[in-house]
Write a structure and sequence with these properties.
By secondary structure, the chain is of the alpha/beta class. The chain folds into two domains: about 55 residues, no CATH class; about 220 residues, Rossmann fold (3-Layer(aba) Sandwich). Helix content is about 40%, strand content about 15%. It contains eleven helices and seven strands. Strands 3-2-1-4-5-7-6 form a seven-stranded mixed β-sheet. α8 links the parallel β4 and β5. α2 crosses α3, α2 crosses α4 and α4 packs across α11. The N and C termini lie far apart (about 60 Å).
């Protein structure tokens, strides 16, 4: 390989920002989908990951080490979304949707409204890859920077007027926000009368520190570091308008479905209450108070 080709290869394998983590996760969804006992099947994941996503996972240090966690997170979000829809949700709002393909791969009512929100470059890339595919529900994509408070408040108000029972999903989003930013977003969502449930993923302070030393270090260098891991756990959201009604740990879920690495099984059972410095990540269903 020539020196200029080597340099280009190394540059391509740099984590350039949050959009690259979306490709990374899509690759793990593709791997899970190929298993005979797959917890979900995403026939679009490999295309969405692209060559860059595959290279990131297979070349970076620890690139494939936490596949089990991404799989467990996807599975739990699927389960919580199915529950909310079965209980009457008529609008799903996916904040920071990334390269998620649930509107195409899940068994959904044709009348269900589904709105994906993300940055313009992610939206454009996704629409290009899935241009010839047909979603199973009424899908809309919106390019919006969620850090813009006035714009998101106006957007949430518009969504609130379009449905009677809204479920919010924010997979892989909150960890990039500061504590104050998460609290403000929680209040903005809780202010909407028809926003009934919010599905989030959450890390303990101990897990946050571990992530900041590994993948988070690369993302920090790209201007997208990990920030949010509240010591109160899911109870953090209570004073901001949301009550946790179901909290599921990723490691416990992965172990139940034979996806957890053997070396991590000693961490089970997970601690009750707030995990603190214990390295915990999970998915939580919140209900508006």
């Amino acid at each position: 390989m020539r020196d200029d080709e080597l340099m280009m290869s190394e540059q391509n394998l740099t984590v350039r920002g949050v959009s690259d983590t979306a490709r990374w996760v899509a690759y793990f969804r593709a791997l899970e989908s190929k298993r005979p006992d797959a917890l979900f099947r995403d026939p679009f994941a490999e295309r969405l990951a692209g060559e860059h996503g595959i290279q990131l996972a297979n070349t970076l240090v620890d690139g494939n080490k936490h596949e089990w966690a991404w799989v467990a997170r996807t599975f739990l979000f699927d389960q919580f979304l199915v529950r909310a829809i079965q209980e009457g949700a008529d609008l799903v709002v996916n904040l920071a949707a990334g390269l998620d393909a649930r509107p195409y791969r899940m068994n959904l009512p044709a009348t269900l409204q589904w709105v994906e929100v993300d940055l313009p470059d992610i939206i454009a890339y996704k629409e290009e890859i899935l241009a010839n595919e047909q979603p199973r529900c009424r899908l809309e994509r919106v390019a919006l920077d969620l850090s813009g408070i006035a714009a998101r408040q106006e957007f949430f108000a518009d969504l609130d007027a379009r449905a009677t029972k809204v479920v919010i999903a924010s997979e892989g989003l909150l960890i990039y926000f500061s504590t104050e930013e998460v609290a403000a977003l929680a209040r903005d969502l809780a202010a909407r009368r028809h926003f009934e449930n919010w599905i989030i993923d959450l890390a303990s302070p101990g897990q946050l520190k571990l992530m900041q030393r590994t993948t988070g270090k690369q993302l920090s260098e790209a201007g997208a570091g990990f920030k949010f891991g509240p010591p109160e756990g899911a109870k953090f959201f209570t004073p901001h308008g949301w009550e946790p009604v179901d909290v599921q740990g990723l490691l416990k879920t992965a172990a139940q479905h034979k996806r957890a690495p053997a070396e991590l099984l000693s961490l089970l059972p997970e601690p009750k209450g707030n995990p603190g410095n214990y390295p915990w990540t999970g998915v939580c269903m919140l209900k508006r108070r």
